[in-house]
Design goal:
The protein is of the alpha/beta class. The protein has 3 helices and 8 strands; from the N terminus they run αβαββββαβββ. The strands form 2 sheets. A 4-stranded mixed β-sheet has the order 1-4-3-2, with helices on one face. A 4-stranded mixed β-sheet has the order 5-8-7-6, covered by helices on one side.
Length: 147
């Protein structure tokens, strides 16, 4: 195998594939809750089994387990996906307005971070660069526009 940069230049995107227990619950979470758009899908025996979801330049794939394929143990354990974005605080507000239980943003490693867990236990994080002090916590402005 050659040691050139051909492979490095050829790789364009990494897309996680989440095995899910309920495509309906996961679709609602990612599409209705987080704002992903379904751009491709696989219908098998009249049922949505797999889909490609896009949000800006990021994507995830979901595939529903059939009862005979489902792994033993709890799904999502140890899996954490981090989406880098322009404004994690705006996404936090948007997600909360859609009923997603996004955690209050905090600053870690120079980034605002808001986190949530999907219906199967996968840990999802949205992060954006900031110069705010480490460990700062986001304080929502009050309704009168102050604070």
């Amino acid at each position: 195998m050659s040691s050139g940069t051909t492979g490095q230049a050829n790789v364009e995107q990494a897309v996680p594939l989440f095995g899910v227990s309920s495509m309906d619950a996961s679709r609602k979470f990612y599409v209705d809750g987080l704002g992903f758009v379904m751009t491709n899908k696989w219908i098998d025996e009249g049922k949505l089994r797999w889909c490609w979801l896009q949000l800006g330049g990021a994507a995830v794939m979901l595939q529903e387990y059939r009862p005979d394929w489902k792994p033993d143990g709890k799904l999502g354990v140890g899996v954490s996906i981090n989406f880098l974005c322009r404004d994690a605080l705006a996404l936090y507000r948007e997600f909360r307005s859609r009923g997603i239980d996004a955690k209050r943003p905090f600053v870690g490693n120079g980034m605002w971070v808001t986190s949530m867990t999907d219906p199967d236990g996968y840990s999802i994080h949205f992060e954006s660069a900031t110069d705010a002090a480490e460990e700062s916590e986001y304080v929502e402005p009050n309704r009168e526009g102050t604070g």
